[in-house]
Amino acid sequence: MVRLRRVFGDALVSAAVAGSLLLILVAADDRVRDQVMGRFGAAHPSTALTQAGGHVRDLAAIILDTVRNQSLEHAPLLIFVLVATVLLLAMSRT
Model-level pTM? Predict the structure, then answer.
């Protein structure tokens, strides 16, 4: 029971982090915002469902492009965040 609760908590934290990253990217880049709004504003659900694979690929490509561009522009900050995350994880494990 405790193990199941921990797995559920870890999955919830992972989903929250992924959602937070998506919200940050939507706030930071117009291309990502346009893609996300286009996906959630579909007029015909059956058509949107059949084209979901292509939309997911397009959205993933734009997100990866945005992350690459942002990481090139803010490389020192990215390195700092990476090191801080590793240190936080190391401290929480002990």
Answer: 0.43
